[in-house]
Fold these 4 entries.
Entry 1:
Amino acid sequence: MDLHQEKINRIARQLQERTSTTPLTLKKKAVSHQVPRPHDKKYTDEKLDISDLDQIIAIDLEQRICIAEPGVTFSEVVKATLPQVLCLIP
C-alpha cells in the first residue's frame, strides 16, 4: 500500500473510531495568518491530524496536471512542475 493510502486510512480510522460529538477541527502544519480571538473554539475543539498530508502524489505530463495532498506548499508544486513544462506559453 502506498504512503498516501496509508495516511487516508489513518484519517478514516480516526473518524470511524470517534465517539465524541463535539466539534472537530483540522490540525495542519500551516501557520495561521489570523490573530487568535479569545475563547475561539478552534483552539479547544478535538483535532483531526492531517499534518502529514504534504506530498505530491503524481504529475501527469500528458494531461498537464499535478495531484497533490492539501498540505503541499505552492513553492513545492512549482519546484516539481516547472521543469516539466506543464503550462502552454502563448
Entry 2:
Amino acid sequence: MDTTPRLSFVNFKKDSYIVVEGNQNTDRFFIIREGRVRISKVVKVVKEDGGDILGPGDFFAVVSAMSAHSHIETAQAATDCTVISVPKEQYGEFIQKNTAVAMKIILQFSKRMRYLDAALTKLTLKNNADEDVSQLFNVGEYYAKINQFNLAYYVYSRYLKHCPQGEHGTLIRERMKKIAPYVTSVRKEFPPDEFTRKYAKDTMIFSEGEPGDELYIIQKGAVKIAKIADNNEILLAVLKPGDIFGEMALLESKPRTACALAYEDCVLLMVSRSNFTNVVVVQPQIIAKLTVLLAERIWFIYKQLANTLIDNPLGRIYDALVLQLEKNRVNFTVEQPYTFDFGLKELVNMVGLSPEEGYMMMKKIMENRKIQLVNDKIYVLDVRDIAQQAQLYRRTIRKAKV
C-alpha cells in the first residue's frame, strides 16, 4: 500500500488570494516553491517579526491548519508563484519524509511565540518581558511575599545556582535563612536519565527566568503555567494530560518565559535536548504534536493581542471568556452551562487590568446573574450570553502600536 503523502503543486497569478483571514477552510497549509507571497491582517496589532513577504521554502497557513481554527491572516500572491499544498491529515506522513521541513516549522513557531509573548506582555503589563536569570529574584520575592515559602525557597536556590555572583546573592541568602523554618518540602531533584517524573500538587516544576533544556508531556494530572509581573501572578494556561510544555527553552536554548507549577499531583514524561533528536526519529508523532501545540498557542496569542484593542475593560473581560471557550472548542451558539478553569482574579489578570480597575470589573461582571462563582471557579449558566456580550464590545476596536 502506497503511503506517500499526496502533495499537489498549485499555481497562483500575481495578486491572487490564496487564503483569507477569518475563513474556516483550514484543511491544508502551503510551502512556497517559487515566487513570493504577501501576508497581511485586517487589524495589525504588532509588526511581524521577519516581515510580510515570504519566499521559496517559507510556509504559511500552518497555524490555522494545525490548530483547526479560522485563518488569522490573509495570504496573497505578490508575484506569480507556485506553492506546495499539504493536506492537514497527511502531515504525519509528510514529516516522516520531510523531518527537516517539520523542524523548520517548529523552530520558526517557537521564535514567533517568544516574539508575540513579549509583545503581549508589553501591551497588557506595560513593561518588557525579562529573559534572563535576574528574573528569578523577582519571582522568588513574589512567592515569599504571599507566604508560598516552598516555591520561594526553590526559586531563590535556582538564582544562587545560576547566578552565584549576582547582585541579589547576599539578600537571597538572608531570605532563605529566614524562611527555611517554614519550608515544609524541598522539591526533589531528578537524575537526568529519569524520564518519568512525579510532582506533588503546588510543586514548582521550573521557574520563569530559569535556564532549561527539557520539555514535558503530561501523563497524569494538571500543570499551571503562569508569569510573574508587577507583583502579580498572571495565569496563562492550565494544561491537562497529553499537553506539552517547556518546549521553547529546549528549542531555542533561552531562559524559561513562564513558571510551571503542579496544579494537581501529576506525572510527567521528560524529553531532554540530548535525546530530543532521537525521540523525533523514533517517534515522529512528537513533531506533529509539537506543531499542533505551537499552532494552538500562536492562534491563541493573536486573539489575546486583538483583545488588547477593545477599549472597554468589561468588554475585554467578556472577550477573554469567549476566547477561552473558542480555545476549548466549546459551542457557544447553543444553550449550555460551562465552568472555567479559573476564578475572577485570574480573569482580570489575563487582560492586564490594574488591581483597582480589576476590582471594579469583578463587581460589574458579577452583576450578570448568569455568571456565578462555584468553588472559586467562574461558572456561566448559558455560554450564549457571554458570546453576545463579547460581540457588542468587539465593535469598540481601536488601533494600537507596539
Entry 3:
Amino acid sequence: MKNKPIFALALVFLLIIPVIVYGDEYQDQDVIEKKAKGCINWSKGTVQAKGIGTLSKKLHGDVNDSSAALEDAKLDARLKIFEVVKGIRIDGTTVVGDYAAENNVIISKIEGIVKNAEVVKKEYFSDGTVEVTMEMNFKGGFAQLVLPREIRPLESIKPMAPVKNSSSVFTGLVVDARGLGSKPVMSPKILDETGQEVYGSAFVSREYAVQQGMSGYSKDLTAAKNNQRVAGNPLTVKGLRIEGNGHSDIVISNADASRLRSASENLSFMRKCRVVIVVE
C-alpha cells in the first residue's frame, strides 16, 4: 500500500514524457542559421545573441554595480545582434551589410532597431557574471527598411494570367526544397523551368511582406503543410534545383507552375505571402 503513491507518481511522469518530447521535436522544425555571434531563426523571423557583463571585484554584490553589469551585458548582446543582422540575406545576391554599407541613414535606422531588441533571458552567476539573451524581430520596421523596392503595395501588383480549363484553387504554396542546398532569404524567388518567375517580389503585397515575411521556413514537410500560414488546401510542389549564385532561387516543374497559375484566385494567397519553403 505504501508503494501506491510512488507508482502513481511514476505513471504520471511517464505520461508526461511523450508530451515533452513532442514539444521539443516540434520546436526543432525551426530553420535556425547559426552565426559566430548569434543565430537567425528564419521560421520566426528573429535574430538572437547572448551578451555578458561582469561585476567589479571591488564592488561585488553592490546593487548599482549589478545594474551596470546588466547594462554591459545588454550592450554586448546588441553589438552581436548588429553583426548577425548584417549577414541576413535579403535575396540571392544581397545581404543587409552590403545594402546598408554606403548609406549612413539606413545604418543609423538599423542601429536604432537593434537598440530596441528585447531581453528574453537573464542569468546571474556566482562569479559575478551576468548573461542575457536578446532577440530582435526582422519583420515589421526592419523589413520595411531593407526589402526590395520592387515589392509594391497591394494595388500595384501585376495580374497573373490564369491557365485555361482548370479551376484548382489553393490556399497557399508549400515548396519542398530539401536536398537542394537552398539558403533562406527575406525575398525568395520561385521559377519555372524556363526561368519565368512564378512567385517573387512582383507578386506580393508590401504590407504582408513587411508584417509576416514573404515566406515561412520549416524543416518538416508535414509541419509546413499544417502551418496556419497556408492552412486549408495548399499546393505542395517539389523543387527541382537551385539557380543563382546565392543558392536561393528555387526552380519547380512547368507542370507545377501551371497548376499554380491555374486560377486567378491563387493570386490572392500569393499577395498575402502564404508560402512556406521546406529546407534542411
Entry 4:
Amino acid sequence: MKRALKLVAVAALMAASGMALAQKGETVKMVRIDPLTGLLGPVGVSQAKGYQFFAEKFSGAGNPAGVKFEVTTIDNKLSPAESLNALKAAIDQGARYIIQGNGSSVALALLDAINKHNERNPGKEVLYLNDAAVDPDLTNSKCSFWHFRFDADTSMKMEALSSFMMDQKDIKKVYILGQNYSHGVQVAKYTKDTLARKRPDIQIVGEDLHPLAQVRDFAPYIAKIKASGADTVVTGNWGSDLSLLIKAANEGGFNGKFFTYYAGVTGTPTALGQNAAGRVYQVSYNHYNMGGQMGKWQAEFKDKYKDDFYTAATIRIFETLGAAMAKAKSTDPVKVAAAMEGLKVKSFNGEVEIRKADHQLQQPLYVTVWQKADQKFRYSPENTGMTLAPVKEYPSYVSSTPTSCQMKRPSGG
C-alpha cells in the first residue's frame, strides 16, 4: 500500500513538473515584417540575420519554456499598405507572433490592424512585438494590450540625450533635422521640449523635415545648417538618411556636433569615417562595447555573417517570450501577453522590466561618442578602425518617462 501511494505521489510530481513545460518542444512561429529592399533595406537584412542567429541561441534549452523559435521575414518595402498585406499572409501561415520595428508609420498601421483582427477573431489572437518603432504614441494614446515595445521610445532617449547635452557648455545653437513621418516629428518635439526645460539658453536656429528614404544628396541641407550658425545638429535619422547626411556634412565642411539615435546602424559607421571623431554621439539601449556575454555574441555574429549586430531588442524579445511562456505554461498569445505584463528578466546589462501600465520596456540607456578604437574599446563596426565608446550611462529610472496609457485588457487578460 505504501509503495502504491509512493508511486502515485511520484506520478503526481512528474505530472506537475511536466505541466511547467507543457509546451516543451513546441515551435513558436514568428514573422518579422520590415524592409529588405530599397535604400533602407540593408538595415532590415542585417536585423534578419540577428533574428536567425538568436532564434538558434534561445531555442530549446536556451529558454525556460523549452520551445523552439522559428522566425521568417517578409519585405514590406517600408510601406504601411504592403505591411498590412504581409500581416494577412503571416496570419494565414499560422504565425501568432508578429515582429516589426523600422518605421513608426508602419507600426501604427500594423497595430490598428492587429487590434481589429484580435477583436474579430477570439481564439486566434496575435501579439505584436515592436523592436524599433519609437513613436511615444504607441505606448500612450495608441497603447494596446497586444503591443509590447522593446526599444526605448523617442521621449525616453531624448530625456537621456538632453541630460547629457545639458552639461556640454559649448552647445549654443541647435539645428533639428529629421525624416518627415511620425518619428521625425516626435524627435523635433521632444528636442525642443527637453532643451527648453534643461538648457533654455540654447537657441533652436533651424528645423527641417525631409522625405523618408528618398533624399540622395543632403548637401543643400548641410548648406542651410552652416548658414544658420548652428554648432550642433540633433537628428533621429536612420539608415541611408543618416549615412548620406553625415557624408554630406564631411564633404561640406560642417564641423559641428551630431546627436543621433542610430549612428551605429548599417552603413553609417562607414560614412562617419575618421573625420567625425569626437563629433558624433548616439543615445541607445545598447552599444558596441558592452563586453561580457554581449561581446561574445557580437564577435560570434561578426565571424559568422561578416556583419555587425546592433538590434539588441532581438535578444530581449527571446528572453521575455521564453520567460513568459514558462510562467504562463502556454504559448497562447493571450496568456503569454498577460504573463509579460510587469515581467522582469535578467538581460545582458542587468534586470529590465516590461511596465504593466503601457507595455514599454524599462531599461538603461547609454550615450556613446564616435572615436578611434583602442585597447579599452576595441569593437570596430564595419571594420572602420573606429568605434562608439560609452561616455555616460543613465539607469532606467532616469530615462523612464510617464505614460498616459489607459490599457484595455481582454476578459481574463
